Amino acid sequence: MKTLNYQKLLENPLFVSRYIEPNINWRHSYLNGKRGIKRLFSYPYASLMRKFFLRSYFQKRVLRGIVDIPYVEIVLTTKCTLRCEHCCNLMQYFTPKAQYVGTLENIIESLEQLCSKVSSINRLRLIGGEPFLFKDLPQLLDYIESQKKILTYDILSNGSIDIKEPILQRMKKSKKIRKVSISDYSHVPNIRLKQESIFKNLKKYRIPFSFLKGGTWHRLERIHKRGRSKEQIIANYLSCRASCVSLIGGGGGGNVY
Question: How far apart are CA 203 and CA 118, in angstroms?
Answer without folding.
Answer: 35
